[in-house]
Specification:
Layout (H helix, E strand, L loop, with lengths): L41 H4 L1 H5 L4 H12 L9 H10 L2 H24 L11 H11 L6 H13 L5 H8 L13 H8 L7 H5 L8 H10 L6 H9 L6 H13 L6 H8 L1 H10 L7 H18 L5 H10 L3 H17 L6
Helix pairs in contact: 3-5, 3-9, 4-5, 4-6, 5-7, 6-7, 7-8, 7-9, 8-9, 9-11, 11-13, 13-14, 13-16, 14-16, 16-18, 17-18
């Protein structure tokens, strides 16, 4: 997936005025930016997609899609690592994408409870560390992202510093957030208490993708600061952003976003958003997936006051997948409460 560069208002971070505020972006990055031009696929491809909560698989898949599906993944992790560091420029890029694709497959296997299809050699973590030290420059950013993600997956003690390094990139180095967004989410895999303080400031970033990536990452970073920051996002005018905040709060067991989740269940919400901006929520599948996530989030909260809504959806929604999700939510709630549905 290749998107047109996003035009930003004001100066880019690192290119002049504005007092730095840490985490790799300046006050200039916090200025509102104009909406993308009508020809830009940015809102169709990024914004609704981000509403679906990120898992390890999700963020890796995004990176893989961003940079193109390049075949040739039969090489081992170590062989691709060698190519990514020492190959020619095109070979290095292909090897980096192959490494990310292999990490996706490993993450999928872990989610199923299966062994990793791509095994790491005993020296793989030290090889990753050496590869990181030997790659530098703006032309190696994709390779470094693959290395940092694999470092997180395979328990490299340097993974936090590597991922945090991406948050220091300027808009000029990462104009569409394709590197910083995945790094924000990957930080949340580590269970490191330092991660939240790096992620939370990105909730105020001007780039909607980075804001929503931060909101998604916070669902795996529990704590009072995280909950307070996500609650503050619930009144945001962007449906996508407040929706992601509400979904993340549900993962943390906080019901503050329940009203937003109920909003996301209602198909009329997306029709109204699409009428305001025809570039948004144009695809039925994206709407369905977001509604499914909202139903599951309400189920996660187990609030008695949401059961009437879930019953209406289960009994009469036009989307059979959403109906089924609501029925399952009611059944789970009934089992948890010791009762029965129907």
């Amino acid at each position: 997936m290749s998107d047109a560069p996003i035009e930003r208002g004001g100066e880019r971070a690192g290119e002049g005025g504005g007092e730095g505020i840490g985490n790799g972006f300046s006050e200039d990055d916090l200025r509102p930016e104009p909406p993308p031009p009508a020809s830009s696929p940015y809102r169709n491809l990024f914004v609704p997609l981000i509403v679906v909560p990120f898992l390890v698989i999700g963020v890796l898949v995004l990176v893989f899609v961003f940079f193109g599906a390049i075949r040739g993944r039969d090489a081992t992790l170590s062989e691709n690592l060698e190519r990514a560091v020492h190959g020619g420029s095109k070979e290095r890029e292909q090897a980096a994408v192959s490494l990310v694709a292999q990490a996706v497959e490993n993450s999928q296997a872990r989610a199923r409870g299966d062994p990793y299809p791509w095994k790491a050699s005993p020296s793989f973590v030290s090889d990753l560390q050496e590869a990181w030290r030997s790659t530098e420059g703006d032309d190696a950013l994709l390779i470094r992202l693959a290395l940092a993600q694999l470092s997180a997956q395979f328990g490299d003690p340097e993974a936090f510093e590597k991922l945090a390094w991406f948050l220091e990139l300027s808009n000029a180095q990462d104009p569409e957030g394709k590197l910083r967004g995945p790094a924000l989410v990957a930080l949340s895999w580590l269970g490191d208490p330092r991660a939240a303080e790096r992620v939370i400031p990105y909730l105020r970033h001007a780039d909607p993708y980075l804001r929503q990536s931060a909101a998604a990452a916070l669902q795996r970073l529990p704590g009072p600061a995280t909950v307070a920051a996500l609650r503050a996002a619930l009144d945001d005018p962007s449906l996508e952003f407040r929706g992601m905040a509400a979904i993340s709060l549900s993962h943390l067991g906080d019901p503050s976003g329940a009203a937003v989740l109920r909003e996301l269940v209602d198909p009329a919400t997306f029709a109204a958003e699409h009428e305001r901006d025809p570039r948004k929520w144009a695809g039925a599948e994206l709407i369905q997936q977001t509604r499914l996530q909202a139903v599951r989030a309400l189920a996660r909260l187990e609030r008695e006051e949401d059961r009437a809504l879930l019953r209406r959806v289960a009994d009469g929604d036009e989307d059979p997948a959403v109906r089924e999700a609501a029925m399952r939510a009611l059944e789970l709630g009934a089992r948890a409460g010791g009762g029965s549905e129907r």
